[in-house]
Amino acid sequence: MMALRSRSHAWRLVDLLAGFAGVDTGADVVVGDIALDSRDVVPGTLFLACCGTAGHGMACAEHARERGAVAIAAEPTREWNQLALTQAAAQLGLPIVAVPGLASRASAVADRFYGEPSAWMDVIGITGASGKASLGHLLAQTLAAQTRCAIVGAIGVGFPGDLAPITHSSTDAVTLQDTLARLRARGAQAVTMALSPQMLAQGSAAALRLSHAIVTNLAGGGLDDPGAVKRLLACAPGLRWAVLNAEDPSCADLLAGLDPGIGVALFGLSPRPPAGWRHDLWVGLSALTALRRGLRLQVLTEGPDGADTGEVEVGLLGTFSAANLLAVVATLRSRGLALAPALHTLTKVQAVPGRMECFGGEDAPLVAVDSAPSPDALERVIGTLRRHGGGRLITVFGCGGERDAGQRPLMGAVAEAGSDLVIVTDNNPGGEDGNTIVSEILGGMRHPERVRVERQRGLAIRIALTLAGCADSVLVAGKGHETTQDLGELKVRFSDRAQVVQALREWTEGRR
Q1: CA-CA-CA-CA torsion for 227, 229, 230, 231, nearest 10 degrees?
Q2: By the 8 A CB rule, do 234 and 225 touch?
Q3: 133: three-class secondary structure by DSSP
Q4: CA 20 to 30 Å from 28, out of 81, 123, 447, 452?
């Protein structure tokens, strides 16, 4: 997840694998690093050769040895039985230790190697079909008043305002523990962590000690195995609170198998919790108002200390943002914060970069930047902007190259149906012909002759702002928080967010 791996740990092989496997040879070998991917091996590494869906790690054992591995922990299988592992050890000249079930135990091995980092911090795991990264970002901001809180999620790793990009190994068990150790070394006392379906399926988070597990939603796709969430709630070491979305009926099933010693905080857009749902805290809404550049929430809470109400205005757009904010309040309340100060923290939150992030909107057009990677997502963000603005809606978007071409006409149809004007532009065409991408987008529209095409994305954004009046809204969709434009062999620095800020400045100066 972070650019460089920490290598300040050293273990004897026998001590590192104690309780996981007996070490007959190489017991005193000193292990200075561990890796699940042979590309991450450096001199002194213990290579964890697991059995995965794409093959067995022993297929990369020679590569790991060449890169400096000093030992291998291998998951025994029918193919890689004890005899085969013994022969491989002789050929490689390395000790190979058979560790049954290594794939599911890699998280625990890494947890030990990195000094059990999650035992020293409050780790708040966030899972569900959608909204994980956004919620984690918002929660980290609100916790800042109480504790130094870091973020691990799809948009990056680090602290609010200082995020490093993720890497190819962002979801593996070793990198995850390494990341936590590095964040702890930087002073993190808490971490909000987006737990993707892939991470749950791989068991990457199996050894994490979670103070809270937040479930955004189970319905709506994105989770191939909803049972993985139930297993997380049942098995997460030290879990104190489950924070569940009461708007999702699927979450009711999670309560049935939940340990009675774990507290339950429910949140939802209704004034009352669903009948019969077990809970210790409830956070709901009595009213939600869409403002020009934000939301007004009238919040209701119930808990052991009675009921309370409060109102807050927040500079975020969309009903989904309201749900995220309620989840934040539920988490803060479960940590002992009263409603009034919890709501006050919401007044200071900023949108996740490139996730329905708004600019302007006061004495200028309201501009929202969002990744909107699918027809459904594009339809949602267009609908959200419609609810926040009474003027025209201008949509600037394109489709990425070398991806699912079948989405392009669908995206075109959605943009046309929801917008007063559409400007089609480039969005990372890569090695594919940009004119072909544009033609396929236009192919889904009923009146393509009414669409403006400007393949230079920066110019397309400026055209949209030039055409927009003060009461109008502009959606810039496709790239979100990205900072580069993929033009095939040429990769250039490009940020929708930076372009929008500059275009709004030009819009304002042009009207003085």
Answers
A1: 90
A2: no
A3: helix
A4: 81
Q: Measured in whole angstroms, how far is the alpha carbon of residue 21 from the centre of its chain?
A: 34
Q: How many CA atoms lie within 13 A of 103 on its CB side?
A: 16
46's tokens = 């213990």
Which residues of the chain carry a pLDDT beneath 50? Answer: 1-6
Amino acid identity for residue 401 in this structure = G
What SS3 class is residue 453?
A: strand
| Structure confidence by residue, pLDDT tens digits, 277-297 | 999 999 999 999 999 989 999
Q: CA-to-CA distance for 492 and 437, rounded, in angstroms?
A: 19
Query: What predicted TM-score, i.e. pTM, was given to this entire model?
Result: 0.90
* 105 Cβ neighbours under 8 A, 6+ residues apart: 20, 99, 206
Cα–Cα dist 241/211, whole Å:
6
Answer yes or no: are the C-beta atoms of 339 and 310 closer than 8 Å.
yes
Contact 155, 352 (CB under 8 A): yes
Helices 102-113 and 173-185, axial angle in degrees (round to 10): 20
| Dihedral over Cα of 241, 243, 246, 250: its sign | negative
Give Cα 58 to chain centroid, integer Å.
31
CA 282 – CA 301 distance, rounded (Å): 5
Strand partners, 71: 46
Alpha carbons within 13 A on the beta-carbon side of 235: 14
Q: What is the maximum span of the chain, computed from C-alpha positions, in angstroms?
A: 81
How would you classify the pairing of strands 30-31 and 11-12? antiparallel
Q: How far is CA 18 from CA 6, 50, 207, 428, 454, in A?
A: 22, 18, 16, 49, 62
pLDDT given at position 321? 94
**All residues at 6 or more sequence positions from 406 whose CB lies less than 8 Å from its CB, including other chains:** none
pLDDT at 395: 98
Distance of CA 469 to CAs 171, 304, 483, Å? Answer: 44, 50, 28
Q: Per residue in 14-29, is it b (16+ CB within 10 Å) or e — as a string?
A: bebbeebbebeebeeb
> Are the CB atoms for 108 and 26 separated by under 8 Å?
no
Alpha-carbon distance of 472 to 363, in angstroms, equals 11
Question: Is the Cα dihedral 91, 93, 99, 103 positive or negative?
Answer: negative
> Amino acid identity, residue 231?
R
Angstrom CA distances, 305 to 143, 283, 295, 310, 337, stand at 22, 13, 27, 15, 12
Nearest in space to 388 (alpha carbons), one of 294, 322, 323, 500: 294
Alpha-carbon distance of 143 to 204, in angstroms, equals 25
State the Cα–Cα distance between residues 306 and 253, nearest whole angstrom.
Answer: 27
